[in-house]
Amino acid sequence: MKISKTGFTNIIRCSRYAPLEEIYRKKRNALVTFSDNMDDLMTSENLAKTELLLSDMYDENDEDLIEKEDIQLNAMMPYYNAIEGLTANAVKGKFSGEFTFNMLDTYKQKKFEMEKNGYYFYCFLDGYLEEENHFRIFETKATTSRKYLDMKHEKESMFAFSPEGILMLTKDLGFSVDDKYEKKLDKLLDRFSDVGRYVYDLAFQRYVIEHSKDTPNKPGKYYLAVLNKDYVFDGTYDLNNQPVYQDNIIVFIDFTSITERYMPIIEADMNVVIDHLNTMNANPVPVGKHCQRKDRKQCQFYDICWSHVPAKNSILTYLNNHHGFTDTTGEKHDRYDLINEGVVNALDIDESWLTRENNIIQRRVIESEEPYYNYRKIREGIHELRYPIYHLDFESFPCPLPRYKGEVPYMQSLFQYSIHVERTPGVCDKERDHYGFLAKDHDDPREALIKGMIDVIKPDGGSVLVYNIAFEKTRINELARLFPAYKERLLDIADRLFDLMDIVKGNTKLYKNLGYDEEEAKKINYYHTDLNGSYSIKKVLPLFSNLTYKGMPIGNGSEALVTYSLFPKMDPKTFERNYRDLKNYCKQDTWAMVEILNELRKTAGIR
User: Fold this and answer.
1) C-beta of residue 371 within 8 angstroms of C-beta of residue 406
2) Cβ-count burial 32-68 (b if 16+ within 10 Å, e if not)
3) Of 35, 82, 114, 582, which has the most beta carbons under 10 Å away?
């Protein structure tokens, strides 16, 4: 049996992944067991349990229930592939030697394979450079250097650039370190952390290379190739109007020393993987962080293993549940440990364990099924609004590679806005008081978007109402920096932003400024059992309005950005239909805010 890097990182999750994968791929021909005895493979009980799992993987028409298309990932794939090409160019520009690289065909990349206990582990390399005295391995990741430069010790980054322009741990550059520094390195050795997951992939490659019969008889260097967080696109395009990037868009991070520390970890993990493959036991296992819940690497069998946890009002519904729960003796209990002990419903936890006031409010709402309102705080929040109110929403394209002059990697390129103008309380017409902008192609729309927006949002002191303020505030400040001619007007708009969520959910800083003490300011303003712990506008809207996104051709942000990404490939008729649908989607977002605010006024007794 051959195991790839991806297969290895999945199987090491838990003992159940490999047998579930076997059932998923081979269905009723799968050779898995539900006991400690592999001789039980073909018992009637074993087959019945396999059938039960298959019913969660395929419906009655044999349609796949596991594989879910990630439309946003598909839209971004051309950019992710382009990053590999940029890495190759950067390697050739910085190093000399024989370089093996193939962006289009994985099977033409350099491959290493090793055997252990009858299993073959292999890896294809994004880049392999062989020089006279050593070789270099490059693993391309579609992330930026920020997450590593942001690793701090004593307020200083734990990484710095070498004289050759390679990002390295300061320890490897000869800086003095202490025990606290060493302790913080543990994050790089955690395969579930945001920085460790990438290094783990590189370490697996190193282990396979060093145990392969084709191992080069010379020392190796191991690098992650990531996007440079400080790279600013200068606006140069080729004859096909495609951006031309300089080699410094890629940063190489030398993880040779860390991958060496990983070797005994990979050795132990390899033995675990082999044990999982030898036993193929499909019985349930404890859930935990290895499931990578709500992560982009969430296990594909998550729904099967978590089926006993209710989708609504589980213990994960409690706000800040990641901090755990403290019992009357002062002992803290982790949420995953509680789930594995059978504590899955929100009401399963003793109320005395709820030490956060907001969790107590949630529990009482779930028990009574009566919504909670802090009418006074809602009223005072609404009274902070100034008219006319400009209800604003943006749509953006989170491109890994900068597309327009002045952008950096992963800058959210705005391509659309919707504005509803509410001139006096409750006076706003969905059609007559709506203003929108939507780019028709992928040419730079930013200045046109700015002009349209500042033409609608007058410098009159009216509140600019958004939902979840951080996104809009960041985007407007970026535009002010990139387009100084409009800086004053844009910064004025940024200063007038007001978050509708601060009225619905609450905001400690806002209510402390209004005279509330710390304890009262921290309390939520509103809770309903249907929120299920979330204050997203999609959760809040149905509780205040009959407005719905169901049935809309474009009904969420992912569908919006994917539709925009495909504009250049659409025929005129398809484009016209999608353009209209996209305008209606963004328009729905701002009208949703109008309706929520109106209902909040009525609920709080504001006439």
Assistant:
1) no
2) bbbeeeeeebeeeebeebbeebbebbeeeeeeeeeee
3) 582
Report pTM. 0.92
List C-alpha distances in Å: 587 to 92, 308, 460, 554. 48, 39, 23, 11
Res 69 pLDDT > 90: no
Burial class for 387, CB neighbours closer than 10 Å (0-12, 13-18, 19+): middle
CB 435 within 8 A of CB 255: no
- Judged against a pLDDT cut of 70, whether residue 74 lies above it is answered with yes
**What are 367-384's pLDDT values in tens digits?**
999 999 999 999 999 999
**Helices assigned H by DSSP within 430-506:** 446-456, 469-482, 487-495, 500-504
pLDDT digit string, tens, across residues 86-131: 999 999 999 999 999 876 676 678 999 999 999 999 999 999 999 9
Give SS3 for 441.
Answer: coil
d(CA 270, CA 122): 12
Termini Cα distance of the chain? 72
Average pLDDT, whole number, for the chain? 95
Tens-digit pLDDT profile for residues 285-301: 999 999 999 998 999 99
Using CB atoms within 10 Å of the CB of residue 525, give its burial: 0 to 12 exposed, 13 to 18 middle, 19+ buried: buried
Choice among 92-106, 345-359, 539-553 with the minimum mean pLDDT: 92-106
Burial of 330 (0-12, 13-18, 19+ CB in 10 A): exposed
pLDDT of residue 39 exceeding 70 = no
Q: How far apart are CA 500 and CA 597, in angstroms?
A: 8
pLDDT value for 35: 78
Instruction: Say if residue 41's pLDDT is above 90.
Output: no
Q: What is the CATH number of domain 376-603?
A: 3.30.420
How far apart are alpha carbons 45 and 33 in whole angstroms?
Answer: 10
Q: Cis omega (within 30 of 0) on the bond before 371?
A: no
Alpha carbons 361 and 356: distance in angstroms, whole number: 9
Contact 438, 414 (CB under 8 A): no
DSSP-based three-state secondary structure for 94: helix
Place of tokens 């031309």: 244
Helix count (H) and strand count (E) of the chain? 21, 21
423: left (phi over 0), alpha (psi -120 to 50) or beta: alpha
Per-residue pLDDT, 373: 97
- Which phi and psi (to 5°) does residue 220 adopt? -120, 155
Domain boundaries, the chain: 71-275, 308-370, 376-603
CA distances from 453 to 393, 587, 592, 595, 596 (A): 11, 14, 19, 22, 23
H or E element at residue 390:
strand 389-398
10 Å Cβ neighbour count for 300? 16
- In DSSP terms, 527 is beta-bridged to 372
Closest CA to 475 of 421, 396, 419: 396
> Regarding beta strands 464-466 and 497-499, do their DSSP bridges make them parallel or antiparallel, or are they unpaired?
parallel
Q: Show the tokens assigned to 289.
A: 């962080």
Residues 124, 2: Cα–Cα separation, whole Å: 13
Cα gap 305→308, rounded to integer Å: 8
Q: What is the pLDDT of residue 46?
A: 82
**Mean pLDDT value of segment 572-595:** 97
Q: Is the pLDDT of residue 250 over 90?
A: yes
